[in-house]
Amino acid sequence: MAAPPSIADRLFWPVVLGGAASLWFGPRALAAAGAVVAVILLHRLGRGRRFRRLVRAIAAHHGETLALRRRQECYLDPYDNLIADGWLRERDYFVARTVAPRLERAGYGDLLASRRDEVLAIVEEAASRPEPEPAEADLPDDGIAYERFCAALLERAGWHARATRASGDQGADVIAECDGTRLVVQCKRYARPVGNGAVQEVVAARSYWSADLAAVVSNAGFTPSARKLAAATDVRLLHHDDLATLAPRPSDRRR
């Protein structure tokens, strides 16, 4: 995409034509040309403000998703260091695939490189909204209680859900049904991203329980290998916050 005209390009013809007109029509023509130049300058000077306003609007529109992805992709390692590598990749992806195309279409694409830090700060602000209740500190500490917690969230969303027994579940911690759709869930209360072992288990559970949908639910994020395997096996990777609004679709039911 070609760069937008510079301020000098925009002012060239108004100045030239205004100067020429003033020779024929006097001070009034010169004043009119001056007014045109002033409008162009004011519009140009406000471009940065409009750029920021557009970025804030884009980030705010996706704020809930950004906040959820930030919670999923940030975690504390065993040494109490905040590991945010996954979130930083997610943030860059959002800027490249969502923000940049909108800026290009609106004529602000040339500003993105020079104002990238400003854009990232706006996205961080939008993603830093407080976590909805229940807070992480209020989550059950042990795995079995977390399974029951996830089943209760599904019940609120309209599913008939039950946590399975600790043994003999064949990879399904929760089994839920709604409108003829059966869902099997692996629940992982972890302090670090969940690996692809959980995806493999829930794939087996989907077959064993003849389920339509399979999901891994965690309070933490997921490793890149888990995401890759989930995409290949049609497994949903969810944060427990997603369960409160999870609803089956007609296309989810296996034929």
Written description of the protein model:
With 255 residues, the chain is an alpha/beta fold. It has 3 domains: 1-45, no CATH class; 56-130, no CATH class; 140-252, Trna Endonuclease, Chain: A, domain 1 (3-Layer(aba) Sandwich), CATH 3.40.1350.10. It is 53% helix and 12% strand. The chain is built from 9 helices and 7 strands, in the order H-H-H-H-E-E-H-H-H-E-E-E-H-E-H-E. The protein has helices at residues 7-25, 27-45, 47-61, 63-73, 85-106, 116-127, 143-156, 196-208, 224-233; strands spanning 75-76, 82-83, 160-163, 174-178, 181-188, 213-218, 236-239. It has a 5-stranded mixed sheet, with helices on both faces. Strands 1-2 form a two-stranded antiparallel sheet. Strand 1 and strand 2 (82-83) form a beta hairpin. The two termini are 47 Å apart. Mean pLDDT is 78; it is low at 133-137. Pfam families: Mrr_cat. InterPro entries: Restrct_endonuc-II-like, Restrct_endonuc_IV_Mrr, tRNA_endonuc-like_dom_sf, Type_IV_Methyl-Rstrct_Enzyme. GO terms for molecular function: DNA binding; restriction endodeoxyribonuclease activity.
Indicate the overall shape: elongated
Query: What is the string of SSEs from the N terminus onward?
Result: HHHHEEHHHEEEHEHE
Tally of DSSP β-strands:
7
Count of individual helical segments? 9
What number of structural domains do the residues give?
3
Low-confidence stretches: 133-137
Indicate the CATH class of the largest domain: Alpha Beta
Secondary-structure-based class equals alpha/beta
CATH architecture of the largest domain: 3-Layer(aba) Sandwich
Integer average pLDDT = 78
Question: What is the CATH topology of the largest domain?
Answer: Trna Endonuclease, Chain: A, domain 1
Assign a percent range to the helix content: 40-55%
Strand adjacency order, main sheet? 3-4-5-6-7
